[in-house]
What we know:
Strands 1, 2, 3, 4, 5 and 6 form a six-stranded mixed beta sheet that branches. The chain is α+β, with helices and mostly antiparallel strands. The protein has six helices and six strands. The protein has helices at 3-14, 38-48, 85-91, 98-101, 118-123, 129-139; strands at 19-20, 26-29, 34-36, 54-59, 66-74, 77-79. Helix 1 (3-14) crosses helix 2 and helix 1 (3-14) packs antiparallel against helix 6. The longest helix is centred in the N-terminal third of the chain and has 12 residues, at 3-14. The protein has one domain (3-142).
Amino acid sequence: MNNELIRAWHADLISGEHKQGFGSLEKKTNDGDTLQCCLGVLCRTAIRLGLDINTTFVTHNEGSVFLGNTDFGKGNEYSQDILPSPVARFLYQDEPDIMVCQNPMLLDGVTRNGQNYATEFNDNEGYNFAQIAECIKRTWPDAFPDTLIG
């Protein structure tokens, strides 16, 4: 695990600098706002820490309230709603099964709908970024050695 990335992701989620969105990693609204799900914040955190991936804005005509999504990836590996493989590999440095890594499981003490995926908490369970950040601390306590995890 990349503990530096986990700590930085946690900090970015609680920073107040990101607006929470749902259903895609990152999207722009008609008003020009940029909305991100918790995994979109992770993508931006990974880029800030030096991961070299492309970001491509893709326009959609799905009748939804956004103009388009940002695809994150490298080469022809792009993703709009789960972690692109370069980000997943940056997070899970020693996990051989990339499919396990593209939608991280988080711990919150309760299994909701039988799924503890980060996207489930963000998109369907109404967790805000601060609540997801606390789940991250419980999931990877080794990344926060000086913190008492409750």
